[in-house]
Amino acid sequence: MAPPGAAGNGVLTSHRQTEMLRFATAGSVDDGKSTLIGRLLYETKTLFEDQLEAVERTSEQRGDGYVNLALLTDGLRAEREQGITIDVAYRYFATPKRKFVIADTPGHIQYTRNMVTGASTADLSIVLIDARKGVVEQSRRHAFLSTLLRIPHLVVAVNKMDLVDYDEAVYERIAEDFSSWASKLEAPDITFIPISALHGDNLVERSQNMPWYEGPSLLYHLEHLHIASDRNLIDNRFPVQWVVRPMRDEHHDYRGYAGQVASGVFKPGDEVVVLPSGRQTRIAGIDTYDGPIQEAFPPLSVTMRLEDEVDISRGDFICRLHNQPWEAREFEAMVCWMTDHPLREGGRYAIKHTSRSARAVVDEVRYRLDVNTLHRDEEAGGLDLNEIGRLRLRTSAPLHLDEYRRNRATGGFILIDEATNDTVGAGMVLGTEG
Asked: Does 331 lie in the same domain as 194?
């Protein structure tokens, strides 16, 4: 962030031209997540020659009998030795139509926390299902976690169709089973695509092996999926991260408030209110590194200038006068526990919500949720590693919250162990009532 320089609206133009889609992959062990991603990287010519040569060489040494594209993403030695994905791996590729960020998340239940981390910012989730096995426990768990995290779009990729002779009946049965389970959830937009990641069927081009399938290829769907409307452009939320006061003489009177637009659209001249003070003012201008702009929307990082001198510090909110988050010191949330040290009622942690920090106490564990069966254990007194439950939290200072279902940016938070500074929990705000 910097004081205004050259005038122009280049940031908006550039942002629109290079729209980015973030998607996460999930599935059971050996469902082919890594092969799928490797094939996408290969087909979009994202690989360097030496990378492909290294994969070919390693494949030959392992005796795979084919170029194992999964080796492109299973970068950890332990992952290669065990044949599973352990950590979240981020991969990047682009086509002429769109840029992509892939979060390759683990499939095993013991790495639930890794999946939650990798998928928390995704626009779309791809759940892979082995056509031979059908919908299994992990498929249902990944569908639930995707809906819990409010990922707007879900693609169910029925993989390894080559191993069931590209049988339409197998695909239809899996689609029906999955749809039946998803009906129990607040499921987002769901698209089913039959694929073979190993051979590239329906990944980039429509496969001639499945003439009965009339939908798009996976890459076509990823390129043309409309995601702009998924962002919350109604509730104006701007958490202040930094107060900008340049020391150079020519800008000695400059005062701006830097941060990332969480939601909504801000324009110069808009009437706004600053929380928690409640002071009302107007936006005098919105600056970026490349100069002033006429509107700011998520996920742009900008510096706002206000018409009046207002006492603002890190953690304060700038929002609309008649559309404000609710202020609360007690609220309920779903929390995924991410450490070996269990959470118990009465536990004390630091809480970080947008750019504001406070202390929090776990007043009550309402229930622990079995993500496989959706059973609620109301007798649970805490959460262990990778478990998810509904908690009532009380904070040392008021937080300005939105429900996670309405606003992922201002409805999410993390819990931190103050002794170790480790992130121990990821939470999604539900509301103030039980």
From this structure: no
Burial environment of residue 1 by CB neighbours within 10 A (0 to 12, 13 to 18, 19 or more): middle
**Span 333-342, pLDDT tens digits:** 999 998 899 9
| CA 426/CA 434 separation, integer angstroms | 19
Give this prediction's pTM. 0.81
97 phi/psi in degrees, rounded to 5: -95, -25
Domain identity same for 310 and 343:
no
128: number of CA atoms within 13 Å, CB side? 28
- Rounded distance between C-alpha atoms, residue 380 and residue 389, angstroms: 9
Evaluate the CA torsion angle 172, 174, 180, 182 in order and state its sign.
negative
Q: List all residues 6 or more positions away from 194 whose beta carbon is below 8 Å from its beta carbon.
A: 131, 157, 158, 161, 166, 171, 201, 202, 210, 213
Q: How many structural domains comprise the chain?
A: 3
Instruction: Round to whole Å and give the CA distance between 299 and 101.
Output: 15
Distance separating alpha carbons of residues 238 and 258, to the nearest angstrom? 9
Tell me, what amino acid is at 271?
A: E
Backbone angles phi, psi at 233, to 5 degrees: -105, 15
Domain, as residue range, for 348? 326-431
**CB of 62 closer than 8 Å to CB of 68:** yes
| Domain harbouring 353, CATH code | 2.40.30.10
Query: Residue 384 and residue 337: Cα distance in Å, rounded?
Result: 6
Confidence of residue 83 (pLDDT cuts 50, 70, 90): very low
How far apart (Å, rounded) are the C-alpha atoms in residues 223 and 391?
Answer: 39
Task: Scan for tokens 């801000």, then name that residue.
Answer: 266
Task: Count Cβ atoms below 10 Å from residue 216 Cβ, excluding itself.
Answer: 16
Pairwise CA distance, residues 356 & 313, whole Å: 10
Query: How far, in Å, CA of 260 to CA of 296, rounded?
Result: 9
Six-digit token string for 278: 């409640």
Q: Which residue has the higher pLDDT, 272 or 54?
A: 272
pLDDT tens for 93-114 read 888 899 999 887 765 555 577 7
